[in-house]
């Protein structure tokens, strides 16, 4: 079970907090092992939108499997806002030192900077305070105008709705992009995976549509991409005719179901190769008979 610990500052933006919270809540509803805890330095946390949240002040004992997220707060400037005390910042530092992941949304990056977690690391924040973040933390490498950045278990995102993208990325990293796509679909949002490696995931990149016929087909291909799935079988899964499926799939993704499956295979094979697998072994794991097809498709990509 992964505990998601939200550290809330006075003036927290509701969507900075609620976006990621909804992602992990939906993931739990779909059977993924997440629980949430809301923490603060006081029990009553006023939000930027006027609602008061209730937080616990006693931190649970965390493990490296847990995730700490610092949502952003109303910050015309970073200086003088989000005023966490030394104890809260030390919690962030200790959790990361123990092997855990620490994330932020929007101005929350400043708390990570004050905890020393941005030193020498790539990071981002809302475009309105990027320059100030760089000035306040000169050892940080601030990446501008991206949705989120991942660097050594420190994950920072741009702000407001980008917290949803950050949370979907974390779900994809822990449980695979198919599960993240399920969460995004349940939330009726476009599954995006932008950041330091923009639109890296084939699966998430081609889920930005609302065609249920194509979603059902992608669900099957995502889960069984290493199998030989013929067009008649995919059409039966989608509940439509073969020509209709091909037409819908091209319109929604710009490619055929076969091409989509090939891209899924190549992406998975590249991951295996990066982890030390040989081309031949990776090719067989993802469903190719040998490495020749894999090499041709990688060259085409």
Automatic annotation (TrEMBL):
Signal peptide: none annotated. It comes from the Bacteria. Pfam families: DJ-1_PfpI (PF01965), HTH_18 (PF12833). InterPro entries: Class_I_gatase-like (IPR029062), DJ-1/PfpI (IPR002818), Homeodomain-like_sf (IPR009057), HTH_AraC (IPR018060), INH-QAR (IPR052158). GO terms for molecular function: DNA-binding transcription factor activity; sequence-specific DNA binding. Keywords: Transcription, Transcription regulation. Residues 215-301 form the HTH araC/xylS-type domain. This is AraC family transcription regulator. It comes from Actinoalloteichus hymeniacidonis.
């Amino acid at each position: 079970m992964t505990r998601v610990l939200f550290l809330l500052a006075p003036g927290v933006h509701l969507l900075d907090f609620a976006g990621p919270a909804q992602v992990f809540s939906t993931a739990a509803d779909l059977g993924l092992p997440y629980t949430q805890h809301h923490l603060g330095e006081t029990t009553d946390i006023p939000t930027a939108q006027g609602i008061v949240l209730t937080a616990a002040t006693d931190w649970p004992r965390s493990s490296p499997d847990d995730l700490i997220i610092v949502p952003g707060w109303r910050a015309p400037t970073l200086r003088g806002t989000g005023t966490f005390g030394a104890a809260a910042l030390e919690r962030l530092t200790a959790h990361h030192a123990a092997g855990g992941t620490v994330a932020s949304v929007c101005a929350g990056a400043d708390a990570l900077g004050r905890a020393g977690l941005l030193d020498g690391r790539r990071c981002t924040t809302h475009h309105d305070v990027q320059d100030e973040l760089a000035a306040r933390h000169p050892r940080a490498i601030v990446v501008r105008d991206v949705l989120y950045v991942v660097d050594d278990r420190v994950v920072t995102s741009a702000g407001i709705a980008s917290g949803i993208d950050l949370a979907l990325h974390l779900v994809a990293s822990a449980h695979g992009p198919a599960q993240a796509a399920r969460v995004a679909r349940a939330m009726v949002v476009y599954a995006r995976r932008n950041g330091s490696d923009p639109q890296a995931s084939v699966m998430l990149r081609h889920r930005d549509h609302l065609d249920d016929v194509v979603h059902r087909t992608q669900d099957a291909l995502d889960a069984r991409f290493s199998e030989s799935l013929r067009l008649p079988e995919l059409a039966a899964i989608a509940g439509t005719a073969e020509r209709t499926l091909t037409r819908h799939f091209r319109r929604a993704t710009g490619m055929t179901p076969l091409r989509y499956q090939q891209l899924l295979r190549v992406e998975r094979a590249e991951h295996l190769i990066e982890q030390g697998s040989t081309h031949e072994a990776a090719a067989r794991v993802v469903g190719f008979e040998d490495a020749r097809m894999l090499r041709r498709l990688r060259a085409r990509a």
